Amino acid sequence: MKEQYIATVEWLENYPELHTLISLSLLILGAWLANWIVKRILVRGIYRALKSTSVGQDKILSDSHVVARLANIVPALILASGIKVVPHLPAAVVTVVENVCSAFIILTIALAIGGVLSLINALYQRRPNAHLKPIKGYIQVVTIVIYAIAAILMVAALIDRSPLILLSGLGAMAAVLMLIFQDTLLSLVASVQISSSDIIRVGDWIEMPQLNADGDVIDIALHTVKVQNWDKTITTIPTKRFISDPFKNWRGMQESGGRRIKRALYLDQTSVHFLSDEEIARLRRFMLLDEYLDRKDQELQDWNARLAEHGKEPVNTRRITNIGSFRAYVEHYLRHNPNIHQNMTLLVRQLSPTADGLPLEIYCFTNTVAWNDYEGIQSDIFDHLLAILPEFGLRVFQHPSGADMRELRPSLVV
């Protein structure tokens, strides 16, 4: 066998081109075979061995492709080492192949490290409190640095020069690099401020009207923050805008356990009047007004008694009004409503009269922050108040409609 090999080599020496072609073919075949063995046998064997552990059962490990990328180093090493023994190749070709293989190995290692960093971020996001301190921005910064270093090393390997030579020239390019990476640097500073000051978190409901953003934060990255709006569209906002632009974060409301109701009933001012004795007696049917009417009656009697002779004229006395009684009723109604947060601000107040009526504003907080429940509670309250208004002799103000015009039409014709 050895003699046949020597004879074959001696014969191929007479045909240098054929000798080189056969050697290159064997080298490429060996690299392909090594790649097949590593990926089909070793890599699959590693994954199968890891399946028996909690780490191997996690799909994130296989999706990161870290092991598969590292396996690509083996054929590159074989090509870089074997190209030296291929006969009759020019030295320049050998150098180019070695340099390309070295650059490929550097790229493969950089991609594998990037996969490891992505794996770390994916595992970190599974923690219950990961949304409080997201690390995705920092992971992206480290990834950019690794890729930048890898790019320098790859260029140095391709031109067969020391990477220190390239690094020494970067000082003159600092201004250019600052210009190129200004958004990255600004985003990095913004990410640090957002994280340290706890400005936003994943899951926060934010409003930024100038950028048409109104919804939940679903992702915080180095350069962008993604907000899923309530119409299910997604708005992508530069991270630095959360430092320079104003926005509203509803997290405080969500953590407080109560959501504010701030809405007014616009009353027809012509329906406001003093209550007669019959009307007061009728209002005493309301359990919520018993205490108020008794206290108010005693207060007015004491006040009017001090008027002496002047108290004989009704215009000089204080009397109970229907709007005051209704305001007291609304406040007591809210105080006894189990859906209203009693430890937060609760007001029923009149605002300045307008051309659209007299606003009676309800200012209170529900004891839930769930949107659907909140809207239901708010609607139930105003449903009741609108229905109970006639009992107090009050009317809601609204502009005339077509139906009103049709009702007035016969009288106008006459």
Can you tell me about this structure?
It contains 17 helices and eight strands. The relative contact order is 0.06. A hairpin with a 3-residue loop joins strand 2 (213-220) and strand 3 (224-229). A five-stranded antiparallel sheet has the order 4-3-2-1-5, with no helix packed on it. It is an alpha+beta fold and 414 residues long.
Count every helix, treating DSSP H or I runs of 4 or more residues as helices: 17
CA-based shape = rod-shaped
| Ends apart, CA distance between termini | 129 Å
| Backbone structural class | alpha+beta
Residue share in helix: 55-70%
User: Which residue ranges are poorly predicted, with pLDDT under 50 across at least 5 consecutive positions?
Assistant: none
